[in-house]
Amino acid sequence: MKARNEWRNDKEYVALVADLLRQPAVQKLADYTQHHHSDRLQHSIAVSYDSYRIAKRLHLDYVSTARAGLLHDLFYYDWRTTKFDLGTHAFIHPRVALRNAEKLTRLNSKERDIILKHMFGATLAVPKYAESLIVSLVDDYEAEHEFFSPLKKKLHQRMKKYRLAKIN
Ligand SMILES: [Fe+2]
Ligand SMILES: [Fe+2]
């Protein structure tokens, strides 16, 4: 996202996610630091909005992309300090987010896949839909604040991995 509040001027986008943004469970994400420079709500909106724009450009399901992108990190613990017995944060938090998202809204199968597979690359759960792949890539991009060429390189590697996984 070029500017932090760019999404606010995009009326079509806002209309797609307004009901979710109003929910206290989503607003609460602002209480958690995601990365050094952003809280989890800012991060979630950035992932949702950028993924939405890419999906729209590619004539994909931008509605599901916008909504599930916003909910992909709907969990409430500090991932830097909370440790789990059952598995890594990368494995666990998409499941926690999915469970929380299902309490807020009805999700279609694509939205469920987007949330559950957004750690593709770090985990072996292969996205079923192109929209899930987009969100997983944008999530990395937003997290690392990389610029164009590293993203392009990463996209290349990810697509290769995706194709291989589809074949096997
Ligand atoms: Fe995440
Ligand atoms: Fe994320």
Automatic annotation (TrEMBL):
Domain HD: 40-143
InterPro entries: HD_domain (IPR006674)
Protein's name according to its UniProt entry: HD domain-containing protein
